[in-house]
Amino acid sequence: MASSNKFRIFFLAFLLLASPLLQVARCQSDSEAESAETAEEVSDVGIVGEDAQDFGDRSYSPAPGVDTVCVFPKNSARIVPAGEETELLVGVKNDGESSLKVYAIEASVHLPFDHSLLVQNLTAQVFNNASVPTSAQATLPYVFAVNKFLQPGTFDLVGTIIYEIDQHPYQSTFFNGTIEVVEAGAFLSIESVFLVTLGIALIVILVLWIRGQIQQLSKKTKRATKVEVGTRSTDASMDEWLQGTAYTQSLSKKSKKK
């Protein structure tokens, strides 16, 4: 009887000691289940998210038959406010023999005179279900934001798209050009102010030139109304008014004597 009571006490103590371990195991299983559900949800989405995979400094060659193009929608001047999101669209045309699968779009900002001087690595946009069949085209969005502390000025943006064809990775540069970084909330950029000032100056010069032409034309018109008679110039209207008088007869006699 005493041994039975001791066994019960030992069993209860074991349950009390083991309960935290059971709780931890349950929490771990719950978290694994949640992560599995999240993975299933992500697999159904084309855009996985930012920085879902680190591609490092790997560089691949472009695949033959694949052409890319880049468009800044509603932003043809390529003005990028610092700290604010900017959207561009990447067009992919696949004229190859096999379909391609898009992995990611990434970009970087460099100094314009030397691309070896990296200013900022922008966030990579990773895709999960983005594929382009043969003889087809696709448009993929890419949203980026430069550092809000980046000094306004002109920089070079290099954008690349990483994809796979027949389990071989490739990479194509869809944009390699300049962008103008401005302060957030700035209405006019330096180039815009310069263009507006140049336009106003050209308009002023044109107005002055037209005014000078009008003044010269008016002077020529006034000179054309005078008629030369002998060695004197008289007004044509005055000659008609004095025609037949003694004044005109004396003028005609003087001209005959000469």
TrEMBL record:
Residues 1-27 form the signal peptide. It comes from the Eukaryota. InterPro entries: TRAP_alpha. The chain crosses the membrane at residues 186-210. Keywords: Calcium, Endoplasmic reticulum, Membrane, Signal, Transmembrane, Transmembrane helix. GO terms for cellular component: endoplasmic reticulum membrane. It is found in: Endoplasmic reticulum membrane. The keyword Zinc-finger does not apply. Pfam families: TRAP_alpha (PF03896). It is a single-pass type I membrane protein. Belongs to the TRAP-alpha family. Heterotetramer of TRAP-alpha, TRAP-beta, TRAP-delta and TRAP-gamma. TRAP proteins are part of a complex whose function is to bind calcium to the ER membrane and thereby regulate the retention of ER resident proteins. May be involved in the recycling of the translocation apparatus after completion of the translocation process or may function as a membrane-bound chaperone facilitating folding of translocated proteins. Shows a remarkable charge distribution with the N-terminus being highly negatively charged, and the cytoplasmic C-terminus positively charged. This is Translocon-associated protein subunit alpha. It comes from Quillaja saponaria (Soap bark tree).
